[in-house]
What does this fold into?
Amino acid sequence: MKRVHLYLLAGILAAIGIGVFFHKFFVLGFPLKPEERTDVWRVEVQLQFEAAGGPVKASLFVPYRTGDLAIVDQSFVSPGYGIVTEPQPGHGMRAAYSIREARGTQAVYYRAVIQPARVRDEVSRAPTPVLQPPELEGAQRIAAEGVVGAARQRSSDAATLASLIVKWLKEAPRGGEAAFLLGPQPTPRRIAMVAAQLIQFAAIPARVVNGIALAPERRDAQFTHWLEFYADGRWQELYINESHRAPPHQLLAWWRGSVPFAEITGGSELHYTIATSRSYELATRTALSQQRALERKLVEFSLFGLPLQSQALFRTLLVIPVGILLLVVLRNIVGLKTFGTFMPVLIALAFRQTGLAWGILFFCTVVGLGLAARFYLEQLKLLLVPRLAAVVIVVILIIAMLTVLSFKLGLERGLSIGLFPIVIMTMTIERMTVVWEERGAREALEQGLGSLVVGTLCYLVMNLRIVEHLFFVFPELLLAVLAVTLLIGRYSGYRLTELYRFRVLAR
Amino acid sequence: MMNWFRTSALLRAKGVMGINRRNAEYTLPHNPRNCYPLVDDKILTKQLAAKAGVAVPELYGVIEIQQQVRALPQLLAKFRDFVVKPARGSQGDGIIVVTGRSRTLYRAADGSLLDDHEMCFHVSNILSGVYSLGGQTDKALIEYRVNFDPVFEAITYRGVPDVRIIVFRGVPVMAMVRLPTRLSGGKANLHQGAIGTGVDMATGRTLTAVWRTEIVSEHPDTGNPVSGVQIPHWDTLIELAARSYELTGLGYQGIDIVLDRDKGPLILELNARPGLAIQIANQAGLGTRLEIAERELPRLRTVADRVAFARERFAHAGPSTGPASDEARAVVQQAPIVLGE
It folds into this structure.
């Protein structure tokens, strides 16, 4: 009865786990291998101003309708400020930081993580724009009519017309109509604005797009400007600077129109700096952010919905069950002896920080020196709790000493030794001493070595990139791990070491 | 790899029980958790046994708190020889057997000498839980030191030999005698190097002996034959074992009995998770015997029934002295298990 119950439970758990896994893999297209990487950009805006002492409201545009790029994560960092985002029709999305009272230099931040989108953010989903032809008068109107008229004659459709206007504005010979419209020493922004006006004058909806070029490690990115015109039922880009079209340049559209990027009330001296950086990340996130509504829900309620920092934690947390499963196998099926039930897994976690060779070296050194100290303390006949406390202190001292020593020797790995589980090490030393005295050095070393071997094996498995990736992307696999653990819980066959132990009986 | 499967198959054919099977099929289902404290705490075991009229080594005193440790030398002054042990110790850890005195020093069974200070420290350690299961605080017992029956004198190196009997729901299924050696430091624990000899359940005579992992016929320290020795009071021993089920309520347990020269069989302790080395000592698998016992259980109503059943069905079939020869083993395998019918 119990057996049937167990098999049923394990079967259901494994079926759910593996079922969800297959669904995510085959239907939703989650990557099975961690190698599939993609660019990830991080953008940070710092907004600085002098607050006058009263209520302050600072607002800035955040990237919106970003086309080929998708914002996968964004955050607003601003001590004490309330944050409201409000759409600005025709311009984009505005975030307003407000506070009741502020004085002196203030800084607020906006951060975004951006990735190439698999599915384009369809600009065409926006309603058909209403044409707002510019109101030009006198000489300006005549000049505009001249440029647009000539362009219309030499073009076949909206796209060629628009690009002709841009081309002429860029070339703009002195004394010509284009130069007159632009004014003296036009900036690229001025060119974009005039081009948008002229295209609208030709009865094609057009607007200026303000954005930044994503570049690896820019501390002070500048806004660049290009155009969008509406034709064939969708917005199309038109670059002032042709080189922007080339692949290494990734332009992140931020807001539209000629309104300023940031505004402030209740303060002055508004500055902003924009920094960009690039990092690689799993293709997973891209796969994730591109799902349809229902699937999006599934993703939102997964680990990917968490902030990056918590995700890093779960990357570690989710491989622990794998280590524990291995530990169960090694203890209950192979029959290795270890100190403490889960000590080897904790050691394996510490090894993840130090690396294997250093980890083993540090572990042996700390336990060895700790044992020596413990044997010395034995002579003093201390009571248990103070003795344990003394060993903890000694262990910390040893760790501090080793860290300083390895740092002076230029071994950077040594710095991570501080992550060793100190209390666990102390208990290991204590247990080892007792076993040493009661059952001899052989048994103590056997168990110590057993712990180290199990810890190493756990580390090797837990540190496999594929394992970390699989369990983070498909945490439902833990249900299968649970099922296997439950089954081992009723395993009543021999342990491998018992075959050796009882070998006399098998003759 | 192939060898492993072969060994595994051979062991299974012999009915040898592994630790996983012991836990999954015997200790977990048959030992209710609430009965564990009765055997894990030796003071409780003693009280229980005393209530049931079962002989145990006399309790001289209990040290429960640190303050009492100071009075320890005074308490011990009354006794020439005694045993200090943790109430919740396991595998014989933390036990000191004092056999006598040398001026102000205590002479331990392993030949070492301790002064009052060291004795008090040892008791303090016991109290703080160094030897207890799970490290909880513990109590220290001071009890009568068994003057073991001279029958084992020739085959014991210091320490106290004892008889371990595995009892399944009141049916004694397997027994062994544990003989301390120089290697085991006077302890009757197979892990630590004591000798284990199998016991013929029908007669109470020792069978082959195992020391560490090899089969031996003589005590490694005294050189005397360890097989074919008749355990005195076997009738009483096997009956004590059969009655221990009603005593503790544990379906699967090991009972350790010592034979005192003057007081006869005394229950030393009960064990809810008895080890499996007994199978090596007996050259027989526990699994087979447990299955037989389980099958016949409904038929066995009284203690007498169970004792009779055990003596009849678990009797040794081959020659009872010395390591069984290949021929003898062949006989064992061919002979029906049921003897004496």
Observations:
- Confidence is low (pLDDT under 50) at residues 319-341 of chain B.
- The longest strand of chain B covers residues 171-179.
- Chain B touches chain A through 40 residues (CB under 8 Å).
- Residues 16-39+149-320 of chain B form a domain with the D-amino Acid Aminotransferase; Chain A, domain 1 fold (CATH 3.30.470.20).
